[in-house]
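Incident log, structure service

09:12 report received: a user says their structure output differs between two submissions of the same chain.
09:20 pulled the input from the user's history:
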Amino acid sequence: MKGTTVKLRPTDVLHIPSLDHDGLAGYDPIAMAIACEECGTKSE
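09:34 re-ran on a clean worker, output below:
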């Protein structure tokens, strides 16, 4: 199926709410946790 388009109905997709800024593209929770850890270590 590489290079083809598949149309899915909303009822055929499992939508899991997560961190996002626009309701469409979500943030990676693992990357966010790592960024928070790094930011916290810099402020100490």
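09:41 both user submissions now match this output. Likely a transient worker issue. Closing.
09:42 reviewer note: Residues 29-43 form the longest helix (15 residues). The chain has one helix and no strands.
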